[in-house]
Fold this protein.
Amino acid sequence: MKSLAKLKEMKGIALTRMSKFNQAGGYRIYVGMATCGKAAGARPIMDALNVQIENIGIEKAEAVKTGCIGVCRLEPVIEVVNPDGTRDTYVNMTVDKALEVLKEHVVKGNPIKKYMMDPQEASTFFGKQLRIAMKNCGIINPENIQEYIAMDGYKALGKVLTEMTPQEVIDQIKASRLRGRGGAGFPTGLKWQFAKNSVDDQKYVCCNADEGDPGAFMDRSVLEGDPHALIEAMAIAGYAIGSDQGFVYIRAEYPIAVNRLKIAIEQAKELGLIGKNIFGTGFNFDLEVRLGAGAFVCGEETALMTSIEGNRGEPRPRPPFPAVKGLWQKPTILNNVETYANIPQILLKGAAWFGAVGNEKSAGTKVFAVGGKIENTGLVEIEMGTTLREVIYDIGGGIPNGKAFKAAQTGGPSGGCIPASLIDTPLDYDSLLNIGSMMGSGGLIVMDEDNCMVDIARFFLEFTVEESCGKCPPCRIGTKRMYEILEKITSGEGELSDIDKLEDLAKGIQASALCGLGQTAPNPILSTLRYFRDEYISHVVDKKCTAHVCKAMIDFDINADLCKACTLCMKACPVGAISGKVKEIHVIDNSKCIKCGACISRCKFGAITKIDKVVTKGAN
Amino acid sequence: MSTCSCNNCSGCDTNAAKLQEVIQKYKDTRGALIPILHEAQGIYGYLPLSVQKTISESTGIPLSEIYGVVTFYSEFSLEPKGKYVVSVCLGTACYVKGAGDILDKFKELLGIDVGECTEDGRFSIAACRCIGACGLAPVLTVNEDVYGRAVVEDVPGILKKYAKK
């Protein structure tokens, strides 16, 4: 890109093209083609629309792929942009419905209300959201750089290179109070300052797109919906700290994101927006993609860098910190995708604009991936300081099936739970730390009365044990020992002293592990012990699992009053544990039952439930 | 390599040639080992010692180091994978919605455990880390096909789909 004037000209052309199309009575149909959309069946819809549009004439309509708007459970989603610029959101689409929308809405001008997202639902879900990091997701075609440019893309980079010094850029970021969105919440401006202050012949800008937290998919959506925001931000970071080389470390489990990012980098290179002599200012910046290979620990900064170097992803002790000695021992900054996604807008709209969003402790917004036992699963971007209650009940639509909310887990395997009693906790960095949880990368898993908190702790430890790199004994051996104790407790063999042992181990590992993975591995345990100690005690003293999850402590029971003796459950049982025949009430033999739950899902009369294990004394 | 009795020697030669191309492509790249391993696994389907040896000979990286990297990352496999890899996501959102039961059903119907391949080489099972489609939990994939909102009852039907292909 030779100059800012050229960029402005491109924006003008792109905008004109997009609006001219609409002004001529044309309709753009955006088809959600991120991972959730594709998983739900968007590809056949896109293909069918393209074929049909060719039949009716290109001038009238065009189908465009886009990223995720966040309503994953309603995918496939298509949005029709009308000639007057308004957008109608169609949900739960099928090929037939999409073609109907094309015929009725686009060709005849009659929108089909019954296929659209319920306006009440839309206002509930989107009403409390504020899209900054996800500004362009679902709005533009991520594989067309012109659409990014039309939305002021690369204008921030141009401004920074032609009107600001590197220190001025860093001062803006500091003033915005932006903190890292990867989980730790370290002030971004400060990190960049340390790297800028380091003196060396080569520096690096890295992006952590490993997103290993189970339940988190915020970064995936930015990468699939708006990859250019990341590219622009990294180039800006390079200018600020004095680096000409960037790396995006992206997990291999995200093939669509990898592909879109590579396409975006190619397009940016073609237009000279990265590469040599950007905007004619003499600033060079190149960007490479590096794939992860399925190791959660590589989301840790030093492990990530050592992985790029071609090694096993084992963390390194700090100091020295990456800003002083990082990738190949050179000064390096590593920021999360979502952190970068905020950068261009902060520089265009100013630090004060960003600082005004959120609260005194945490500025800006946070994207949460809301999942688990909640009606509206999906991605939400909310102002920092929004309470958990608002997320669960206002935006999230509450708990399905009339169940009671029990806890929400944030921070993945490094985080903690927020019990129902603390549902009015504001979601910001410090408030969450104070209650024994953490912001984490943004995964928010909602649990109800049917989840066992001891089992959840065991589940997270199972993950951590598997993912431990093995380098330091506290994590390698310690997490395993904690897991074994939890296994013991959930299989009904625990003793009261095991709880003390668990707590002791947990605190010791927190204090001595080499990296964040080990240091935070005990969090789910300490957090569930803090708020659900009674459940642990019930498991070890009464040998009862109050949520009826832990298989060793439950029996399956057929209620004779509800059983219609239809034999469906008998047929479903893989181990022949149910006896009876047509018109003869069925009975489960719990000594054979493997607690798989197939019978419960088959029974149409709700006759089968889980109960506390029946302990027969003196029986052989 | 001389112990192979499959008689598809031209296949081996093609793969060997492709592998050399990949190694050449990355000869000036720093930290090239992991990109090379990704592409090598794309060519061979897995990373047997013979392939690791070739990479070692061509790059100068000690075999022990390469083996150390291959065994560290779960993406790399020393064993051949099935024609259809069933991957059940065991991330948190899927787990709380019953993904464990779905995985058990696959194990039961295929008669194999996670990481194993059926005798006819048709199916193998992997328990994958979160793939990030949590809004559609529980999620499972069979190669590139993604199945969202899965339930235990879906399992026989899914397997049947690929049994004949």
Observations:
- Chain B touches chain A through 47 residues (CB under 8 Å).
- The radius of gyration of chain B is 18 Å.
- Chain B has a mean pLDDT of 87.
- The longest helix of chain B spans residues 9-25.
